[in-house]
């Protein structure tokens, strides 16, 4: 059984606090939802492994990010749940689990986030580029620390 850093509750709380702090301090348009892909990965791991206490903290972190960025409350949680229930089982059927699946999960989350952002606010070039920059930041952070 492979163990992930997100399985450690202390590490998870530190990551959640960093994500909340970054999104609270840097509320300019460039950093819209920084580290939300990492939070989605934590959501997925918590739900899959049945770590309900960690899941509650991830949902609270999503709530802070949604309120700070202007999204509807629990929209990122519902998006994550939708991806977990409907999309990820299709991806898992292709191959056994490996590290590349985690990157694919984050990319699917950001595709859903672009759709959610378009429905809520409309989209322009600057916001799309900011979301792509956030995707790259999440993928680099995931590769470096998780």
Key structural traits:
single chain, 146 residues, mainly alpha
Structure description:
This protein has 146 residues and is an all-alpha fold. The chain is globular. 77% of the residues lie in helices and 0% in strands. Helix 4 packs antiparallel against helix 5.
Describe this structure in a few short sentences.
With about 150 residues, the chain is mostly helical. The protein contains 6 helices and no strands.
Radius of gyration: 14 Å
What integer is the average pLDDT?
A: 86
> What is the number of strand segments?
0
Low-confidence stretches: none
Element string (H = helix, E = strand): HHHHHH
End-to-end Cα distance, whole Å, is 16 Å
User: How would you characterize the largest beta sheet?
Assistant: none
The helix-and-strand class reads mainly alpha
- Summed up, the helix count is 6
Overall shape: globular
What proportion of the residues form beta strands (DSSP E)? under 5%
Summarize the amount of helix as a percent range.
Answer: over 70%
Present the secondary structure layout.
Blueprint: H1 9-25, H2 36-49, H3 52-69, H4 75-94, H5 99-121, H6 125-145
């Amino acid at each position: 059984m492979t163990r992930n850093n997100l399985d450690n509750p202390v590490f998870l709380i530190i990551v959640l606090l960093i994500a909340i702090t970054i999104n609270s301090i840097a509320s300019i348009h460039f950093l819209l939802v920084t580290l939300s892909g990492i939070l989605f990965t934590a959501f997925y791991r918590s739900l899959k492994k049945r770590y309900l206490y960690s899941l509650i903290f991830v949902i609270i972190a999503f709530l802070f990010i949604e309120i700070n960025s202007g999204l509807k409350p629990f929209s990122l949680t519902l998006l994550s749940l939708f991806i977990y229930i409907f999309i990820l089982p299709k991806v898992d059927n292709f191959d056994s689990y490996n590290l590349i699946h985690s990157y694919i999960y984050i990319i699917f989350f950001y595709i859903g986030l672009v759709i959610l952002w378009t429905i809520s606010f409309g989209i322009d070039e600057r916001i799309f580029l900011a979301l792509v920059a956030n995707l790259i930041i999440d993928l680099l952070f995931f590769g470096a620390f998780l």
